[in-house]
Structure prediction request, 495 residues.
Amino acid sequence: MNKRFLTFDFGASSGRGILADYDGQRLSVREIHRFVNEPVNAFGHYYWDLLRLFSEMKTGLLKLRREGITDIASMGVDTWGVDFALLDAYDKPLGNPLYYRDSFTDGEMEAVYSLIPKRELYERTGIQFMKFNTIFQLSALRRRYPAMLDAAKTMLLMPDLLNFMLTGVKSAEYSMASTTQLLDVRAQSWDTEILKRLGLPERIFLPVIRPGQILGETTEAIRDETGMKLPVAAVCGHDTGSAVLAIPMERGERCAYISCGTWSLLGVELDAPRTDDAAYAIEYTNEGGFGGTIRFLKNIMGLWIYQEVKRELEKGTGSIDYAVLDAEVAAAPAFARFIDPDAAAFFEKGNMIGKIRDYCTATGQSAPETRGEIFRCVLESLAMKYRYAVEQLEAMLGYALPVIRVVGGGCKDKLLMDYTARATGRRVLAGPVEATAIGNICAQLIATGEVADVWQARSLVSASFGVEDYTVSDRAEWDEQYRRFLNLIEKKTEE
Prediction:
């Protein structure tokens, strides 16, 4: 008898409800609800619209009810990392969660380093230094709006918050907690010494739980409104953690992975964290994975720049078809210019085309003019940055990574996948596209006893979803141009 599982996957630009059918041998998935997830600019900051996101989940449940589908074995929720809400003594939110690209944390990294030296912070947490990390958000809150922290009883990261709204059960799931830079990377629990030094109240941090267990059932209010009563599982709440669970690699396989979406998360799966000088020098992060594994990876800006450029252009022209853009990219001159996708200028929203042109002129390159030139610049640069990150990773690990497994929405961009294979000189295996949702479902399968462990789950993914193989030999020009790219980013780093 087939069993059905439901996931709500919230990305930083859109969300969707995905229904899975499991027949004991294979999985199949279909989208049942899709919605936009855009931050709202209000009161001087960008916020996530929490109530609308919750409403979208209920809309998805109602759609299933109208189809006559009520026999759901479980559901799970995953989101982007780091963001959170504070609850008061009555379990009511003290405002909407801040959007991680907001300027709220500007200058806060240095304030934290004055209390906890940077090298020590990395040794304790193993996390890449990004200005939006939860540690910097909470530190800024402590400094700027201390009354909010004083009034807070509980901190809930985004998937934990949505799970609480669904079930009334509060929790702190491991993979998501690891993104905060407040977790002891070895003990896999909150680092109370860090909390003490930053003046953060220990009471707001719940005990950390493992993914792959049932939290509870939907509340009576949810059941009354949607007609749906179903168990809710703690999955890898961080979307990258779910995506990595769904990578169809084999036990012992030496491969790098890229979870390719708004962000590109490039790394390997390890059994134990790396916080030595070599890891610190290249600033790779040690985030939590399913079964206590470590996602040793680098955050790369990913398709964010591409998406922002496309949004800007569509404001004036309406929707632009991806096939049309691909044709324009293919027709544009190759290697005309490069950007460093991780340059600070590209982090925040707004005027992305202008930022690309300014970067190019500031580095002695011609500014791109046409749509094809702009997008080609972004895609070629991103592929080159992947090579840079993989080579850093190989040098640190001391062994080769001949295969790159790519999962997520970026798999659909055949040009990017081809460029990645050419730039890196490695075999690129792309798929599944819906890795985050599939990994979410795999955690549910484990939680409900349908699947034994991670490796059985990955075998199931391999049997259920195909991959596209990008293997190229003609890449001499990419090698030559890589030296140009390397000189560019290293020069900018020195400046």
